[in-house]
Each structure stands twice: as structure tokens, then as C-alpha cells.
């Protein structure tokens, strides 16, 4: 028996070496990238070049000062700006646009296999759009499928961004959806948990299954057609943060009401998602406590258009007006902004829409949103190994046509995508 076992083991080894994953392009030992300019996560440097060896950046600076090691190759990138791989702060790879299929139907009617198959395509589109990392904030009823998706990407089975996953997310019983007939309990888009024991158990369960971050819904629309109201108590939110933090995880809160936001901030969450009804007072509290806002303006914009808003022709609908007011208050308070669009509400691969809207509709500068999407998100999400172009960091790099610090729309013209030194797209 032992001998047979060893033979089977060896056969397994042979099979594994024959079946190499094909989704990861080979990594060159050394490659010198020579674009027109480099945006290093902070500022633009015309005439710089970047040297990549294996999966890391090993040098960055004026092109004349960089030497190519023996056996390396040079990639000329005329007219392009090289920048750190963009970091998506709020995606749902397991969702697809609501104008294709309403959220309720995705959660209740689509099989997990269909949803995962879609998610693999979404992951590839995200990467090829220049987003080499994504914080994926909840599977919305697809259980722990994000953990497997992340593993498939890390193992090189499918192409995709490096993922931070939130798994199921936490909601207070009765607060979330889908909401159908009161006579039927239907599967929910997140895990219900309440009270001391229930909450501690749910947070630990999610972390044990692979959650990198814990997501909590601090408010939601109670009852059929109800308006958003706080969900968890202050004590419950504080316990969620304490339980996650003791295992080295941060907590992010979906919140749009001032009271839901206030409780989440006092509990110690790291980011507030949406913040639609945020007041100057609550944003000042966020500023004081170092909590970032991920405003997801692209989701607000998309949902308003799905509901019939003819952008450019019609007046701003109330929800969009409200978003403008909250963003003005957030900017006035000086809150740190994370960059994340709530992708999945709209198409994966259109991630840069959030950056364009922040500049075009909300008055931010291209430089502000570029920093947000690179070094800013890296800092907020504790990703010290990326988000900047510096020796020693991961070789997650993209090149875009033109100068994105002048015209942010350049980030839609992605010509090169490198992740961990592997080229997924090149001119
Ligand atoms: Zn979301």
C-alpha cells in the first residue's frame, strides 16, 4: 500500500509539472521600460525610465541613469505615461450591471456556477483596464466564491487583479434584501448576524473562510420601500471592529445616513462606503478619526441613468444632487478619499469611470484622482508593497496613451499592463 501511495504521489507530481497554468505570461529576468513620462504615485516625471527585475521594480529615474543588466530587454513606450497599477477600492466581481439583470434576480435566480463564470471574465476585464488590485466588497449572495476566485488568480489559473476580499458581508437581521413577500424568507445578499454571540461568530466565520476585510452594512432601507436607517447598534459595531482587529483585519462600512456613518466611525471602521447623506459634522468626525470616504459616485450616476435620467438633458435627480452636496461637505471637511466606483453596478472594465466623474462632475483635479487610485488607496488599504513606483515594490505597472495628469480620460487608453513583472498587455 505504501509503495502504491508513493507511485500515485509521484504521478501527481508529473501531472502537475505537465499542466502549467497558462493565464500568467512568463516573467522576463530584466526589462527596462522607457515611456515618455512616469507618474510615480505622487508626481509626473518626464524622461524617466523604470527597471523591472523578476517581479519587482529595481530602479526608477532619469532614463540616462538607468542601465540594462546583461540578458535584459528594453521596451520603448513612446507617447505613453507609465504609472503604478491602479487600485480599485470598491468592486463586486460577482455582480454584473443592474440594467442587464436586477440585483434581486442576480441574488435569487442566478446559479453560483453562472455567477463565478461571469466573475472570471470580470476579473480579466478589470486587470486589462489597468486595475492590478481590487478590494472586492461582498459576494452578494454568492457565499465565499470570492475566496476561490482570488485563489484561482493567485495560482495563475485565470488572469485577474490581486484581490482583497470581504466574502459575505454582515447585515442586521431584517435590514437587507432581497425583500419579497413577508410570507417567505428568501436567501439574503449578505450574512445576517445580531447581538454579542451572533456577531462574534459571524465575523470569525468570515475571517476563517478567507475574508481580508470585514464589511458591515451600518444602515440600509428597512421594510418595503423604506428609507435608509441605522441597522447595528453602537455596541454591535464596536464589537465587530474589535473582533476583526484582534485578527489583524480592518472593517469597512456601507453607510449613507449621518447616524449610521457616525456609529461606524466611532466604532473604528477604516472606510465609509457611499456616504450619500453625509453632513459636514459627520465628515469632520471622519477627518478627526482618520476614516476615509469611498464615495462611489459612478454607482450613483449609473443607477440614476438606469432609472431614466437623461444625463446632460435632464436636471439632476434628487439622489445625484444629494451626492453633490455630500461630496462638497466631505471636501470642505478635508476627508481623505478612497477611489472606488462600486463596479458591478456598472460594467467591470469601466472602473476608470469613477476617476473621470470625480474630475468632470465633482471638481477634483486629475492629479488628485491619480494619487487616490494609486498611492492613496495603497495607504488606506495597508498595501505597502504597491501603489508607488519605487525600488523594491511589486512590478505592477501600466502605461496609458497621453498624459493622465492633464487629461484623466487617458486612463481609459491602457496600452500596457504588467502584474508582478508579467506582461498581460503590451503595445
Ligand atoms: Zn458595493
From TrEMBL:
SUPFAM superfamilies: Composite domain of metallo-dependent hydrolases (SSF51338), Metallo-dependent hydrolases (SSF51556). InterPro entries: Amidohydro-rel, Metal-dep_hydrolase_composite, Metal_Hydrolase, Metallo-dep_Hydrolase, OTAase-like. Residues 81-421 form the Amidohydrolase-related domain. One of its GO terms (molecular function) is hydrolase activity, acting on carbon-nitrogen (but not peptide) bonds. The keyword Signal applies. The keyword Signal applies. Residues 1-19 form the signal peptide. It comes from the Bacteria. Keywords: Signal. This is Amidohydrolase family protein. It comes from Hymenobacter properus.
